[in-house]
Design a protein that fits this description.
Radius of gyration: 20 Å
Number of strands: 9
Bound molecules: zinc ion
Low-confidence stretches: 1-5, 288-316, 325-370
Number of domains: 1
Strand content: 5-15%
Keywords: Acetylation, DNA-binding, Hydrolase, Metal-binding, Nucleus, Zinc
CATH topology: Purple Acid Phosphatase, chain A, domain 2
Distance between the termini: 15 Å
Order of helices and strands: EEEHEHHEHHEEHHEHEHHH
Mean pLDDT: 79
Family: Belongs to the ADPRibase-Mn family.
Protein name: Manganese-dependent ADP-ribose/CDP-alcohol diphosphatase
Domain HMG box: 297-345
Oligomer: single chain
Biased composition (Basic and acidic residues): 335-352
Amino acid sequence: MDDKPNPGTLRENSERLFSFGVIADIQYADLEDGYNFQGNRRRYYRHSLLHLQGAIEDWNAESSTPCCVLQLGDIIDGYNAQYKKSEQALELVMNVFKMLKVPVHHTWGNHEFYNFSRDYLTNSQLNTKFLEDHILHHPETVPSENYYAYHFVPFPKFRFILLDAYDLSVLGMDQSSPKFQQCMKILKEHNPNTELNSPQGLSEPQFVQFNGGFSQEQLNWLNEVLTFSDKNQEKVVIVSHLPIYPESSDSVCLAWNYRDALAVIWSHECVVCFFAGHTHDGGYSEDPFGNFAPRSNPPSLASLGDVAKKLGEMWNNLSDSEKQPYITKVTKLKEKSEKDVANSKSKGKFDGAKGPAKVGQKKLEEEDEDE
Ligand SMILES: [Zn+2]
């Protein structure tokens, strides 16, 4: 955390509308505690399961039950792949999640891809797309199957969007696919190092193998959903494994094309908050502003306090009969759980990538400082 003011302070007259849980980078492995590559950060591989259990017990014991939990990726550690324990480790963590009384929405991080292919994940318990909401008569808000992203509405006028930060990536992808070749091209264009996990000497240090980015297709979809939310005066929370705002993260941990994602978000009024995992130190920052996408009325990113305030205001303006469908909806969700801003600038930049699309060695990101 940086030394910004505490964002959690509520105004005296605000009323809590609903709550939700957030957990990131559980990185479970049946291993003794260890350290990251630099040896400066301890990793509690086995104990992370106990921490998850504790968090779940706390969520379940809340007097006002959270509507859902957002799991921000890296649910098991890449080491599991080395020991051929990926499926076993995932099963253990998922069994702990079964104690949770509310739905959990899973996002995918680099460690998911160290353990599993994208195809495997699509057919696994980590695909929670069935929890998505459909906006009737707006087919443009239905996500494509080419990336793992969706949106849902936990409460009236409030939409959550899960993004796929490894939509552009060299991890977990069929290495003979044109998309893999294209992603490797992008990575190599920005990272001339032999070791593609190394940010050494890079002017844009986020271009490392353990990060990824958002395809134009996904950004176009995000733009459509945000356009809908603007029109309907909704407030939107976005989640992704990778952070997109430099002030709230180590620059090595940002999504490759974080600027493109910010450009889409900043062209809308509705986004109030963005949550990400990956950067283990954590970070918080309010209102990105001024750097690359100036606009007259910027949203407040990553501000929990603002979200709480806005939620309280919105909820207070609803009648009991308007509230009822959402209360019913949450009950149903629980049951269910049981069983362009087409930023041509960036497009041109990526299309112009040159150089050989050589297949890189898949490596665990212990070489890196965080995530
Ligand atoms: Zn990560």
